[in-house]
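Let us work through a complete example step by step.
Step 1: write down the sequence.
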Amino acid sequence: MKHELDETSKEQLAGILTDELRVLRAKLCISQQDLAIRIGISRQTMGLIETKKQPMTWSHFMALLMLFMSNDGSAEIVRRIGAYPPELERYIKINGW
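Step 2: predict the structure and record it as tokens.
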């Protein structure tokens, strides 16, 4: 069984989440500033990610994923857009996250 996701898969998942950041923030009624604080980055960095001027790192992706997956409303969106596919769920479970 594969215990790692390749870099291309990680970039694709981060891209999917980046495309829907505004929608997900709206679902949680949270500002860029509040979201940035929750995952430990600056509001400026969050803005650059949201406007696709800076790529989302894997660490940012995982932090955002955990935040969005902890809310029923945003978790449904994350699943529907394909940012939390079964292979990522297995990857997380296998690696003990």
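Step 3: interpret the result. The domain at 7-94 is CATH 1.10.260.40 (434 Repressor (Amino-terminal Domain)).
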